[in-house]
Amino acid sequence: MTIDIPEPQALGTPITHSAIFIVANVNPGSEAAEKVKGWCGDIAGLVRSVGKRVPSGNLSCICGFSSGAWDRLFDGPRPAALHDFREFGVEGRLAVSTPGDLLLHIRAEQMDLCFELATQLMSALDGAVTVTDEVQGFRYFDMRSIIGFVDGTENPVGRKAVDFTIVGDEDPSFSGGSYVLVQKYLHNMTAWNQLSVEAQEKVIGRTKLSDIELDDEAKPSNSHSALTTITKDGEEVKILRDNMPFGRPGAGEFGTYFIGYARSPEPLEQMLENMFVGKPPGNYDRLLDFSTAVTGTLFFVPSADLLDELAER
Ligand code: HEM
């Protein structure tokens, strides 16, 4: 049960039209580390300043820290389940682990708000970090991923979303926090578009136009939906996703920025194992024949209250 938890960061924000994802490393030296710590106390104020200008724009920002960054920046206890991202799969079909100390997940209805906040946040960091990846994501029609299927349908909502994503009594010093996995995927759209719609539906496990789940008899065991549906002690365990399409058609780049929040890294890792190694091993996610993970990093997202306090740690 999660009761009396500190205020989480803005995980519950309704899916927006635009997002910017920034992953950055903290530069060497104590000056950079101190700058980043102090900045933790500035984030909420900057979100207020930029967001107030367009109240209907729903601007929000979530900030996470990797295991290595946590140990380097903050004294005292550390989030119990935080560790470096572990790779899954085999050469040619690998959930790669790539460097990154900080994650910024900025969302708003309009890109100008995301852009302005990213600019202000980076300017406040004033050279203390080096950005390793930056992606601008957009909503694609009726919440479609770039491969044409509606994405996010089976996300938990309301109380369930909180129970599945927010740390509670199991780690009292970090209650109100969350774990988040990001992976940048590139799709081979030429190969994908050569499949018939029926074949694509068997890859995802849902119908394309109407987004209805295939019956158990029709849904292959190597479909994305079958392999990412997991249970623990007989109960389904969910994560909260807010994937965004991105790309550069002129360069032939078509991608999905995957972002998944959970109460512990365990369900995220279980899903990756099912997808990349397979369940049983070898029966891997068909979606990976058309999608390559080019980044992968795990972060802890402290509660909003703790984020503010971290400046003093
Ligand atoms: C190439 C990147 C990916 C794409 C394009 C993608 C797309 C989709 C689509 C279209 C659906 C069906 C609609 C829905 O319920 O949202 C889905 C479901 C889902 N995906 Fe992904 N996904 C990707 C990667 C991942 C990864 C890496 C994970 C987990 C680590 C994941 C976890 C899930 C889960 C839990 C569901 C819901 C399954 C269910 O309850 O039926 N996805 N995804």
From TrEMBL:
InterPro entries: Dimeric_a/b-barrel, Dyp_perox_C, Dyp_perox_N, Dyp_peroxidase. Keywords: Iron, Metal-binding, Oxidoreductase, Peroxidase. The keyword Oxidoreductase applies. Its cofactor is heme b. Pfam families: Dyp_perox_C, Dyp_perox_N. The keyword Iron applies. It comes from the Bacteria. Residues 143-305 form the Dyp-type peroxidase C-terminal domain. GO terms for molecular function: heme binding; metal ion binding; peroxidase activity. PROSITE patterns: DYP_PEROXIDASE. Residues 9-139 form the Dyp-type peroxidase N-terminal domain. One of its GO terms (cellular component) is cytosol. Coiled coil: none annotated. Belongs to the DyP-type peroxidase family. This is Dyp-type peroxidase. It comes from Pseudomonas koreensis. The lineage of its organism: Bacteria, Pseudomonadati, Pseudomonadota, Gammaproteobacteria, Pseudomonadales.
